[in-house]
Every structure is written in C-alpha cells, then in structure tokens.
User: Which sequence fits this backbone?
C-alpha cells in the first residue's frame, strides 16, 4: 500500500444531541477517539457526514461519521468510497455497536451478514456486497425490555465508568488494522475485552 493511498474508518451512529452518548453511538465515540489520537484535520461536512482527513506514518486516513441516521449509513459511506476510488473490501473498516457481544468485547470480521445491524445493512445494500470489514464493539443485551430503547439510551453509570477504556481498546484495534491489516488484527483482538482480567 503506497503512502498516498487512502483508507476510511467509518464510525456509525445517529446525529444530534438526542443520541449523543447512547449505546448505538459507540461507533461515533471510537471515530472521535481516533481523530484525537491520529491528529486529524478539522471535520468537514461532506459525503452526507463529518469527514476528518488524517496524514501520519500510517498513510492517508479518513475518519467518517455519517450524519444520515443509522439506517441510511450507506448514503454516506459509499459516496466517500466512490470519491476516493477505493476498494470497499480492502480500504474500509466500519465500527459499530453489537448487541450480541458482552459490553467491552470486540471482534473484527472480513465479511458476512449484518447481524441485524441497520447501519451495516445499509452499507452492504448500497455496495451490493457483504464483503465489508467491520469492527464490532459489544454493548450487551438488556436482561429484559425492548432492545430498540436499550440501544437508543445512554450507558449505565457502571458502564460509563469503563467506557473510555472500551473506546480506547476499539481504537487500538482500528489502528492495528491500519498498520498490520485485518488478519493479524483479528488474531490479536478478536474476543478480547479490556474489562476482563485474564485468569
């Protein structure tokens, strides 16, 4: 990969103050942490989203936060890919919340179904492909009640205390993807949870 090539990390969420800090927006939180850690340029309103360009020893990186609402994320991600003439199966990593993983656990995957996540589903529908590299960040499932209200509400006080560590761990995985590629990053990070002390 040349120094001048571009890769995009898209963190998914819903725009607006109503959704800030909610479980469904952990993809935005990871994107915002990457912007800080990579020293990116100021955000630009483009590609139906907020786009931060970053130049570092990792090459050119774009951090994208779609502002389309979750179920139309593809209307932001795909125009960005097309603009930079990128290969979606190689040059894109999508970070988003996952109900099926315990809070704090992360998993990366090269392709497959959306697993019921509307944001990833929208991207795959627009691309016409299930081959989308993704970084799933566990938010856990509610023990009872509606999952829709669960994901659209804020983290519990106990989760809030650990949230920065979880977001940083996911950002570590995204940076490893930039430096080492997906296969090595999966080997290092899949199934890891910064909140669980190894026995």
Assistant:
């Amino acid at each position: 990969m040349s120094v001048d090539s571009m890769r995009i990390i898209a963190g998914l969420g819903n725009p607006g103050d109503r959704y800030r800090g909610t479980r469904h927006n952990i993809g935005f939180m990871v994107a915002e942490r990457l912007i800080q850690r990579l020293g990116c340029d100021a955000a630009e309103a483009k590609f139906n989203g907020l786009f931060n360009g970053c130049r570092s020893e990792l090459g050119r990186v774009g951090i994208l936060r779609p502002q389309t609402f979750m179920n139309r994320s593809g209307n932001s991600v795909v125009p960005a890919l097309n603009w930079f003439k990128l290969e979606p199966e190689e040059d894109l990593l999508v970070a988003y919340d996952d109900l099926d993983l315990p809070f704090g656990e992360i998993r990366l995957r090269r392709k497959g179904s959306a697993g019921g996540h509307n944001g990833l589903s929208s991207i795959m529908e627009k691309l016409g492909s299930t081959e989308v590299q993704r970084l799933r960040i566990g938010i856990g499932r509610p023990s009872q009640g509606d999952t829709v209200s669960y994901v659209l509400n804020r983290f519990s006080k106990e989760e809030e205390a650990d949230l920065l560590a979880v977001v940083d761990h996911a950002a570590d995985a995204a940076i490893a993807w930039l430096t080492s590629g997906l296969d090595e990053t999966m080997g290092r990070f899949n199934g890891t949870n910064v909140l669980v002390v190894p026995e």
